[in-house]
Fold each of these.
Amino acid sequence: MSGFGTEAEQAGSPFILYLEGEEQQAAMEALSFWVSGLLLPVYGREVTSRSPWCSQWWEHLEAVAQLHALWLAWQELTGPNGGLTGPAMWHRDYLGPVMQALRDPDGPFAGCRPGGHRAKETPTVEAYPA
């Protein structure tokens, strides 16, 4: 998943797309624990064609990036330094928009069905003219 951004941008960044090797594996395990242990049991509404979810969400890079960002915001806003309004801000500013984007019928899980992951085709990109 690495290779995004410059080395200076990546240095010290906890964002999962910048991590490699054991550090990335540990972040994915922690994210998976949070998604399956807290996010989905509390906020994972029923899967429908209008609100899809992929049981193999980790196979969708966009979902990994968005869920990781959601988890980082959750840690900051619900932790000891989040303040009394931190959890409300997390729900309003992060949870709703991220879940809506992920579960949109045209979102990253479009075509996935309960128990059935479908890989997405990446749009073609032409080389930037130098």
Amino acid sequence: MNAMSRLIVIATLAASAAHAQSVSLLAPTEFRSLTADRRAWRVGDVLTIAIQENATATTAVDLGTHRRSAANVNVDPIQGASVSAGAGLDNDSTGAGRMQRSGRLLAQITVAVTEILPSGDLAVAGEQQLDLNGEAQTIRVRGRLRSTDIDERNVVQSNRLADARIQFVGDGFLTDAGKPGLLSRLLTLFGL
């Protein structure tokens, strides 16, 4: 064999060996085209939850009771004497109560996809901590959502979260000042 045919054989063997060991850099399950939108769709992806929650609760109670008890005894006259006895008890009580509470929370928080559920829904969770003038405030969000509820900006409205758990917790001087004191809590405990 001449040098040229040996070179062709070596090049052919090298090409077939490289082809046998080649690995695609494209994982079919992870592929997204350059023109695809950037919505969250796998574990670890992040998206923004726009929290706009309004809660109002009103409870009203009107209570009225009336109780009347009476007992009378009459005895037929015996040898010209008559005995009569009576007792009565009236009890009226009325009461009314009203409780009204409302709250509003507006915030945006970025959360991560923690799990893809068998239904195709995305389980998400995230936490944001803020320190405003010595007041530590924490917002926690957890829930599940449909990928179709994610808009083109990669944002989901909080009212689209299923099994939503949204917490807003504050800690600091102002929060402590808003809590009732020990005496108030004791009086409330005893219903006073």
Amino acid sequence: MTSTQPYSANFLRDVFVLTGRALRVTVRVPFAVIPNLVISLFFLFVYQGGLSGIAAMPSFHGASYLNFILPVAVVSGAVGGAGSSGQALVRDLETRYFTKLRLTPVSRTALVLAPMIAGMLQLVVQTILILFVGWLMGLHVPTGFAGLVVVVIYAAGWGLAFAGYSVASALRSKNGQAAQAATFIFFPLLFLSDTFVPISLIHAHWMRIAAHINPTTYVFNAMRAVLETGWSTRPLLEGALAIAILACITLGFAVYTATRTLRRA
């Protein structure tokens, strides 16, 4: 097996096996991911309960505030859940399991990619649970089941992008708390956006500028399009582009950091 054939059957097998192991470790330690789900649902309940009255404003065009605020719970879960990828890698570093794997012919790329995929799959399950709770709260989606699938796909892509940054932070710090804390620098992105109201209702000029250049805004808009109005091409494309750009940056950072770390080791 060689690491110079990243698309070979051996590489795919390595990714599959290591991802399966990472998922099994997560199942054995559920408290590593449950708090993030609880916090996301807490945000959903509080925002819906305390702010739903503003949906009566003309700028909402009669849309349900639950449909408007649900993407906030999903995206905040993606940012918080991304830290689990870095923490899983740190656990392997601390137990020297990562060192043992490096002595085997397993693909070096798979060593880094597997925890990121595992984190993304955890986020998919979390997003499905959030959508189910939203359905219990009265969520009605004009695009039907297909629209919910689109929300899950966008959440998975957003989570994978943040997982790349989390893994890179874990490799650089080799500390689980530091890797988790590193993802919190992205939480301002959630609030410097059209988080609670449409951009047209944001009066502070600097916040409107921040919202327009914030990639989170376009992910929110893509999810809200399928949850509120239907299939709108522009917000879906803009959301996909925002995810692709961020993913390229963070995954490139993760690969660069992993290459330097393994070379020094």
Amino acid sequence: MLVSPTPYSCSKAFSGYPCCHRQWRHQGHCRFVHGYSRSFNLWFAATGLDACGFVVDFSSLRPFEERLRQQFDHTFLVNADDPLLAEWQRLHDLQAIDLRVMENVGMEATAALIWTWANELLRERDGGRTCCFGVEARENSRNAATYSAVPAWFSAQG
């Protein structure tokens, strides 16, 4: 569990995003295409509760969840510098894979990306009352990476 920058916090789990990727620079078996059902745990903080008494109304995260689904549900993730990118694009064009090009497909970079997406939504919607201060990106029950930071624009004092 992460430590909240404010007295009020909550967390939300998102799961069921089967996708595949490869780490082409890896010297071991991770250089091969392999898949996981990714899941994400996000931690939110607020300077105060909303009118309903929530840090974050989870039903308001549907656009965020749709973004996760579009990026990770039955997709093939590849690094932007993968030397086989043209081949992956060809397979995408043939509708053999649903390609998503990322700066880095690793779980650490994915956790940071999810953190950025969540904070873009929260800052725009809540005007600084809420933030995401941590993301756990999990590829399976044994392996996860965490990114945690308080956005510079968030003030715990409100």
